[in-house]
């Protein structure tokens, strides 16, 4: 890949998402001597957001400010990014493999006639050629892919490529590109949140996930308490979601979210193949289950055989002692 790489940043609740900083690190890995350009599209407060991209390693940043960029739509964001691509002619484009990344990247790649590699978890350099590693068959195998034509377009899975350390002595230009976003067929009038937002599941470093063993919505309370002590996000198996113990937005697995935290604590989850598809690449897996034969123990690094309603309060007490 080339000299100039455009990183499409994403924001959440007025802040840059961590995966966008990871995308900057990925761009640096692909071309250490190249120029990394961070792009942030929003309706407000762009200067601060662009500055953060530079602190995390972008050589310069571009902002597109427009009222139509308040909430994500593929049409409005697509027009903004395409205008910047036309302006900058980058040699590569990277963004997070998030819901927005999954929606936007194929549309843009097809318009730009780019080769697209999605959900990359690592990058190797073979001579001058970046090779992207991505999981296939629900994480049971990995493939190594290269792009042979068009502007290489990559999406990276959150939590796999470490972001550079934030360094507020880094500096770089920030330029605004005016884009006339028009002829939108849909606009977002309002976003009504369904659940109160805690730590974002897909980017969480620690996840406490509950399964059918939790037995009720009330049974999730100790898991939330443990999550709070650990600064973790709460997730769930489909068993727990189907039983109405929690919202489907927490579901992890083949038909839920794919997560790669540093620590995954599976509580009362049997370890069905469809659940493992969403979490088996977690760096450290701890399973708590009263059945010593439960399949989850086959992939766990640490296992606790016991009743979760006895084990979780003990963990909360112990973690509270070491929490700062
Ligand atoms: P169970 O299998 O019922 O396991 C509950 C566990 O809790 C048991 O191991 C039990 O020993 C333990 N337990 C019970 N009481 C206690 C206690 N007091 N203390 C400690 N342990 C206790 N599943 C997903 O999770 N994600 C998906 O995305 C997903 N997609 C699917 C897609 C398809 C097409 C299909 C067919 C299935 C999918 N499933 C998915 C469902 C999956 O097959 C399992 O049914 C589901 O994961 C089981 O959830 P569970 O482990 O919570 O429940």
Low-pLDDT residue spans: none
Radius of gyration, in Å, reads 21 Å
Give the strand line-up of the largest sheet: 7-11-6-1-4-5-12
Average residue pLDDT: 94
Largest sheet: 7 strands, parallel
Content of β-strand = 25-35%
What is the ordering of alpha helices and beta strands?
EEEHEHEHEHEEEEEEEHEHEHEHEH
Count the strands?
17
Helix content: 25-40%
**Annotation field: number of helices:** 9
Judging from the principal axes of the Cα atoms, what is the shape?
globular
Unique bound compounds? flavin-adenine dinucleotide
Structural class: alpha/beta
Q: What is the terminal-to-terminal distance?
A: 44 Å
Organism: Oceanobacillus caeni
Family: Belongs to the ETF alpha-subunit/FixB family.
Domain Electron transfer flavoprotein alpha/beta-subunit N-terminal: 5-191
Keywords: Electron transport, FAD, Flavoprotein, Transport
């Amino acid at each position: 890949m080339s000299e100039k790489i455009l990183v499409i940043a994403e924001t959440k609740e007025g802040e840059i998402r961590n995966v966008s900083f990871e995308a900057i690190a990925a761009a640096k890995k692909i071309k250490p001597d190249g120029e990394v350009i961070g792009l942030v599209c929003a309706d407000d407060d762009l200067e601060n957001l662009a500055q953060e991209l530079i602190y995390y390693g972008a050589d310069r940043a571009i902002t597109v400010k427009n009222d139509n960029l308040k909430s994500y739509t593929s049409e409005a964001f697509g027009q903004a990014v395409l205008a910047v691509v036309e302006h900058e002619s980058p040699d590569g484009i990277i963004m997070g493999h998030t819901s927005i990344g999954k929606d936007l990247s194929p549309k843009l790649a097809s318009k730009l006639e780019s080769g697209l590699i999605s959900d990359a978890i690592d990058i190797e350099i073979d001579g001058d050629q970046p090779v992207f590693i991505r999981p296939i068959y629900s994480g049971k195998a990995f493939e190594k892919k290269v792009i042979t034509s068009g502007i290489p377009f990559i999406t990276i899975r959150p939590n796999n490529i470490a972001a550079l350390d934030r360094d507020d002595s880094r500096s770089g230009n920030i330029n605004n590109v005016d884009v006339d976003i028009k002829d939108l067929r849909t606009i977002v009038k309002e976003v009504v949140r369904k659940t109160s937002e805690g730590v974002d599941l897909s980017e969480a470093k620690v996840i406490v996930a509950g399964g059918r063993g939790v037995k009720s919505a009330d049974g999730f309370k100790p898991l939330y308490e443990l999550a709070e002590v650990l600064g973790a996000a709460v997730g769930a198996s489909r068993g727990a979601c189907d039983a109405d113990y929690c919202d489907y937005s927490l579901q992890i697995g083949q038909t839920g979210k794919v997560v790669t935290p540093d620590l995954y604590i599976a509580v009362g989850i049997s370890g069905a193949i469809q659940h493992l598809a969403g979490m088996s690449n977690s760096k450290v897996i701890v399973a708590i289950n009263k059945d010593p034969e439960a399949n989850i123990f086959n992939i766990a690094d640490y296992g606790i055989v016991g009743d979760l309603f006895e084990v979780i309060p003990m963990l909360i007490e112990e973690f509270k002692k070491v929490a700062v």
